[in-house]
Design a protein that fits this description.
By secondary structure, this protein is mostly helical. 73% of the residues lie in helices and 0% in strands.
Length: 148
């Protein structure tokens, strides 16, 4: 949003344009952060139709790979940003963008990702065999009590 406002201020510099620029600034002041992300990041779709096409590409690709109509498990397992990752892999400058990420940031994100996957794994194990899952937890708990 800031870059859009900066662009307006730099483009419309004449005195007659100032009321329009100030009106735009005051009108958009209440908009939430990220509303106009598509202007700051060219890879984010701009319209609702573009969004639908954007998601449909990944959804169709997943359906062809797995044969499954629903992609809910895919999103849960791979993360809510799977569509952006899938799209980023087809972009020309992806390697330069990946190189710009520091190891510390990557490591922190990787830990968060692993933690999230552990929760999904726990839910899946519980659904598959609740009795065994609860018995394993009870055994771990008893082991911890015995060590204390």
């Amino acid at each position: 949003m800031k870059s859009l406002i900066q662009w307006l201020e730099q483009t419309y510099v004449e005195a007659q344009d100032q009321p329009m620029v100030s009106n735009f600034k005051s009108y958009t002041k209440g908009f939430w952060k990220g509303l106009f992300t598509c202007y700051d990041h060219p890879y984010v779709p701009r319209t609702n139709n573009d969004h639908e096409r954007f998601f449909r590409q990944t959804k169709t690709r997943h359906r062809r790979m797995t044969g499954l109509r629903s992609w809910n498990e895919y999103i849960v397992r791979s993360g809510e940003f799977v569509v952006f990752v899938d799209d980023a892999l087809r972009q020309t400058d992806v390697m330069n963008r990946l190189r710009s990420v520091s190891y510390e940031v990557f490591h922190a994100e990787r830990l968060q990702w692993s933690k999230r996957l552990q929760e999904t794994t726990k839910r899946r194990r519980f659904r598959r065999n609740p009795t065994k899952y609860l018995k394993d937890i009870e055994n771990k708990f008893c082991t911890l009590i015995g060590q204390a």
